[in-house]
Design a protein that fits this description.
By secondary structure, the protein is an alpha+beta fold. It has three helices and two strands; from the N terminus they run ααββα. Required for the transposition of the insertion element.
């Protein structure tokens, strides 16, 4: 799991120019989203838009979930999978939930 350099650069540039970016909350959102995406990739057996012989499932869009953290509310995109649950840890994300943060 690696955060894209461009995403980190955009965040830091926005923070420096004072465009109203909350650096802590946005950092939490980026890290949590990367963890959720990595977990979905593991369950599917292939990355997003990637063809693979080891694929065992398919992505089917995503849904928004609000996670309340000490840094503030963070909106995350939870991938939906065609077969089974979307994700082990992220499936328990609900409004006001902070327990999934403790699991990671």
């Amino acid at each position: 799991m690696a955060l894209s350099q461009s995403a980190v650069s955009e965040l830091l540039d926005a923070f420096r120019t004072g465009e109203g970016v909350d650096l802590i909350r946005e950092s939490v959102r980026m890290v949590m989203q990367e963890l959720i995406e990595a977990e979905a990739t593991e369950q599917v057996g292939a990355g997003r838009y990637e063809r693979s012989e080891s694929r065992v499932n398919e992505r089917n869009g995503s849904r928004a979930r609000l996670l309340a953290t000490q840094a503030g509310d963070v909106e995350l995109r939870i991938p939906k999978l065609r077969k089974g649950r979307s994700s082990r840890s992220s499936s328990s994300l609900g409004a006001g939930s902070t327990r999934p943060c403790m699991r990671w």
